[in-house]
Amino acid sequence: MPSTSRTVRAASAVSTAPGPTVVRSSESGPGPLTNYDALRAALGNPELDPELLERALTHRSYAYENGGLPTNERLEFLGDSVLGVVVTETLYRTHPDLSEGRLAKLRAAVVNARALAEVGRSIGLGEHVKLGRGEESTGGRDKASIVSDTVEAVLGAIHLSGGFTVSAEVVHRLFDPLIEAASAMGAGLDWKTSLQELSAEHGLGVPEYVIEDDGPDHMKTFTAKVRVGDGLYGNGMGRSKKEAEQAAAETAYGEIAADLGGEPAAGTAVVRSADRASGDLPD
After folding, report:
1. Is 89 marked as a binding-site residue?
2. How many angstroms separate the CA atoms of 221 and 233, rounded?
3. Which of 2, 69, 80, 118 could be stapled to 63 by a disulfide with Cβ–Cβ 3.0 to 4.6 Å?
4. What is the pLDDT of residues 187-246, one digit of tens each?
5. Are residues 103 and 78 located together in one domain of the fold?
6. pLDDT of amino acid 67
7. Per residue in 9-64, pLDDT tens?
8. Which of 54, 80, 180, 250 is catalytic?
9. Is residue 97 annotated as involved in ligand binding?
């Protein structure tokens, strides 16, 4: 796996770019200056063109409400490819013995909307996104789809500003911990898969999720618990049923592993899931 020192070196390498990025968008007309210093610092101060950064943070809802400004969708398209290449190459180089199916399983645990949203939230990205009034009023700043898409758009902007080396360094800075977690934990960020593997390994049956919701339709909060064997475990919350189930599965995994006297060997779950995906094990 990429070592901590490698990640630190990567962060250091991009920290020499010019300092404060203060943006006044020529497209949005006169207005207060926008200071993105905190966001740049969280990214490692990479080379980043101010106009591209502004565009990367412009959601289509804001663009449509302001005369059809350019949106971040093209940058998102580019950033998705940059992220995929960097993560795929990292997995290829650090897991020389894994089959294509296993590598694909690991990559899917890192490159998905939920994981990207967690990365975006960890750097406070949501507070910088430019949203239309409708999205703003319905909690768009914390919406996984919006945050994850914006992460990719920012990576696209960095790639155009500084090239592949700089954008790859930022990907390592933000995603190496997730790559390491996915490899060490098994199904990694897919806690439902990890829990199902653990349950099957110990003959506890198929986990069943119990979901409750609260709040108005446009701002619902979901709470999930999971029934495994004779017990009810976990207590996960989220903006969607899927998010709540993942949170409940994560908590339940730890509780059940503790009840069983410790976690199974690291990597067991993902190896079995990947083997099934690649045809190496029967279902």
Report:
1. no
2. 19
3. 69
4. 445 688 888 888 998 899 999 999 999 888 877 889 999 999 989 998 888 878 888 898
5. yes
6. 87
7. 333 333 334 444 444 433 333 333 467 999 999 999 999 999 999 999 999 999 99
8. 80
9. no
Q: What is the residue range of 157's domain?
A: 4-185
Among 185, 205, 222, identify where a domain stops.
185
Q: Flag whether 214 is in a domain.
A: yes
The question of whether 37 is a catalytic residue gets the answer no
Task: Kindly report the CATH number assigned to the domain that includes residue 25.
Answer: 1.10.1520.10
Do residues 205 and 199 make contact, with C-beta atoms less than 8 angstroms apart?
yes
Is 152 labelled as part of a ligand binding site? yes
Out of 54, 135, 152, 176, pick the active-site residue.
152
Query: How many Cα atoms are found within 13 Å in the side-chain-facing hemisphere of 173?
Result: 25
Number of domains in the chain: 2
Helix (H) or strand (E) holding 171: helix 164-185
Check whether residue 175 and residue 252 sit in a common domain. Answer: no
Cα separation, 235 vs 230, in Å, equals: 16
Q: Within 10 A of 76 (CB to CB), how many other CB atoms are there?
A: 20
**Pair (9, 89) in one structural domain:** yes
Task: Check if 152 is active-site.
Answer: yes
How many Å apart are CA 272 and CA 203, to the nearest integer? 16
